Amino acid sequence: DAKTTQPPSMDCAEGRAANLPCNHSTISGNEYVYWYRQIHSQGPQYIIHGLKNNETNEMASLIITEDRKSSTLILPHATLRDTAVYYCIVRGISSGSARQLTFGSGTQLTVLP
Amino acid sequence: SQTIHQWPATLVQPVGSPLSLECTVEGTSNPNLYWYRQAAGRGLQLLFYSVGIGQISSEVPQNLSASRPQDRQFILSSKKLLLSDSGFYLCAWYHPDRAGHEQYFGPGTRLTVT
What we know:
The complex is a heterodimer of chains A (113) and B (114).
Chain A: E1 9-13, E2 18-23, E3 31-38, E4 45-50, E5 55-56, E6 61-64, E7 70-75, E8 84-92, E9 107-112
Parallel strand pairs in A: 1-9
Antiparallel strand pairs in A: 2-7, 3-4, 3-8, 5-6, 6-7, 8-9
Chain B: E1 3-7, E2 10-13, E3 19-26, E4 32-38, E5 44-52, E6 55-58, E7 64-70, E8 73-78, E9 87-94, E10 104-105, E11 109-113
Parallel strand pairs in B: 2-11
Antiparallel strand pairs in B: 1-3, 3-8, 4-5, 4-9, 5-6, 7-8, 9-10, 9-11
């Protein structure tokens, strides 16, 4: 699975959009980009994933660059409850693998009142 | 909708004592199941995964074991706990028929070995 690079921490004002970047320059054509978050003392929560096209769901939007070497997770109106560590993960979908998720260090997002 | 449960939520056990953590999934059948461990301030480490009843694969040699006695039940066990077994244990599932293969995690069990 491709390696990802994220800033260790970011702050965002409550009510503003939070834009979390992720670099994955070695991503291959069949690898997806997944975003999870982990609020303190809770299990990781799936947010969104994408392959090539931008994606949006009730939680967030995922913008993937045309060359797929980077992506941005957008929380359109951040709230205090969005304070968490956000993980960007790149992995392929292949048969016969454990399909485990490899979590890096992530980005600690702090939403400020 | 699908839900995943873990218990207990917290556990304090002495060194050398046995361990049994349970994970159950509702609302789906034939899920792939995973046990992860997260040490304080660290990332997730995959311990075991299972693609079906009685099928267990171990990723890391250790004094832990896993079993899957029923389709939606996954158990993590140890005969004798070590101090290094302390951590946050997470169970996860995904269904191979889901196009995105995204995994969903339970609330976790925080284990402290004293």
